[in-house]
Amino acid sequence: MLLKGIKVLDCGSYVAGPAAATVMADFGADVIKIEPPGGDPYRGLLARRPDGVIDFFWDMDARNKRSLCLDIKKPKGREILDALIGETDVFLTNFRPQLLDRLQLGFEHVKAMNEKVIYAQVNSFGLSGADRNRTGFDITAWWARSGLADFVRRPSSLVAHSAPGMGDHATSMSLFGGIMAALYRREKDGLGSHVHTSLLANGVWAHSMMVQGGLAGFDRSQQRSDEDMYRNPMGGIYRTRDERLVLLNILNPDKEWNNFATAIGRENWLTDPRFDDSAERRKNAVALSDELIDTFASNDGDHWQRQLDRFEITYNLVARMEDLLVDPQVFDNDILTPVSDETLPYTHTVNSPVWLSDVKKVPHRQAPDIGQHSREILASIGIDDAEIDVLLAEDVVRST
Question: Where are the domains of the chain?
Answer without folding.
Answer: 7-207+369-398, 227-324
